[in-house]
Design a protein that fits this description.
By secondary structure, this protein is of the alpha/beta class. 36% of the residues lie in helices and 14% in strands. Its EC number is 1.10.5.1.
């Protein structure tokens, strides 16, 4: 109770299955007394491209543009664009970050990847000497909740897609763990488009049930062994 949750949502259609998962999370967590904020990236027309527009005012080096260096310098002097500052404030205040999206090409949609690229800048989310367990966003939890086009069998170790954990490695370990954020077991709804209405209802119920006891969960072991065993 009293926990703060940020849901970063990347789907174009509110009536989609992802939209239903979002709605359930907002309702269930609010019911628990959490304060829930949603960044609905498509509705916000969030800009996914990392460009010099992200820096307000002078550049650190106007001769050759280096996005990483420029955003780091801008962050230190309070010179990042307004949309980034707003998202960073939401991240800063959150105890839990939930990412809700459909899997595209073994990855998150471009608009969500762009959110990661632009919001989690050096100085805010990590520093060169402060990464992984020492990342700057320690004390927070994250959860990747997503839908797939392929079945669970396709994403098994022996399946055509390989173990789903391979897909999660760059997101959970390479981004969240790198920034010091602890990672909860992912929530995966396999191929909701290809199953019966009844099965879809079961998937939604399972998500509701999980959210009821979410705060009792222990984070996953974010070591390479978890992803590649």
């Amino acid at each position: 109770p009293g926990k703060r949750v940020l849901i970063v949502y990347a789907h174009q259609e509110p009536k989609s299955f992802n939209g239903s998962l979002l709605k359930i999370a907002v309702e269930e967590l609010t019911k628990q007394g959490c304060s829930v904020t949603v960044s609905d990236l498509y509705a916000m027309q969030f800009e996914p491209r990392a460009t010099r527009n992200d820096i307000v005012g002078r550049l650190h080096n106007s001769e050759a543009f280096n996005y990483g260096v420029e955003t780091w310098e801008a962050y230190k002097r309070g010179g990042l664009s307004k949309d980034l500052v707003e998202e960073q404030k939401k991240v800063q205040e959150a105890d839990l970050l939930i990412f809700q999206f459909p899997l595209f090409w073994f990855n998150m949609p471009a608009i969500l990847k762009g959110w990661m690229d632009r919001v989690l800048v050096q100085g805010f989310a990590y520093d060169l000497s402060k990464a992984y367990d020492g990342g700057l966003l320690q004390g927070k939890l994250s959860l990747f909740s997503f839908t797939t086009g392929g079945s669970k069998e396709m994403y098994s170790k022996g399946g055509i897609g390989g173990d789903i954990r391979y897909v999660l490695w760059p997101m959970q370990h390479g981004i969240m763990h790198f920034c010091g954020v602890k990672v909860l077991e992912p929530h995966i709804c396999y191929a909701p488009e290809n199953v019966s209405e009844e099965k879809r209802k079961e998937m939604l119920t399972a998500w509701t049930q999980r959210l009821k006891t979410l705060w009792k969960e222990e984070p996953i072991d974010c070591s390479p062994e978890w992803y590649f065993k």
